[in-house]
Amino acid sequence: MAGGREQGLMQHALILTRIVPERGLDGVLTAVSAVTHDGRAVRFESQPDQHINLTILEYQRAPLLLLTDRLYEPFPGVITVPGDALLSIVPMSAEHIRALLDRNEGDRLLEAVSVQLP
Questions:
Q1: The pTM is what?
Q2: Pair 32, 23: CB distance under 8 Å
Q3: Per-domain residue ranges of the chain
Q4: In the sheet where 29-36 sits, what is the strand order?
Q5: What confidence tens digit (pLDDT) does each residue in 82-112 have?
Q6: Got the DSSP string for 54-108?
Q7: Is-contact 53 9, C-beta < 8 A?
Q8: Fewest CB within 10 angstroms: 3, 13, 100, 116, which?
Q9: CATH 2.60.40 for domain 12-105
Q10: Sequence-separated (6 or more) residues with CB below 8 Å from residue 42
Q11: 42-60 per-position pLDDT tens digit
């Protein structure tokens, strides 16, 4: 989905409304699942020795606005973010984002952010 864009630049914006940490039988965080404001499923993967993305997401309060440099949509409505993708959480309060969503302005927020992305 990156379509030839330069890797390392934030190119995608998502509003996450639900975040669910997934742990293995040993209690280790193995992935994070989420749901976007428009109902798509997102899975944030980890890599061996690289769990920082999962740890950052695990303690976030939803809803939140997230930027990433890479994501894949293997099936319609299902998004995968690889473990080595760059993530950035936009500093907006969950209450403010919730108010925008309550006014059905989630897509508008994404459009406003997307025009500023490379």
A1: 0.88
A2: no
A3: 12-105
A4: 72-75, 78-81, 41-45, 29-36, 12-23, 64-68, 87-89
A5: 999 999 999 999 999 999 999 999 999 999 9
A6: HHHHHTPPSSEEEEES--EEEETTEEEE-TT--EEE----HHHHHHHHHTT-HHH
A7: no
A8: 3
A9: no
A10: 14, 16, 33, 34, 35, 36, 71, 79, 80, 81
A11: 999 988 777 788 989 999 9
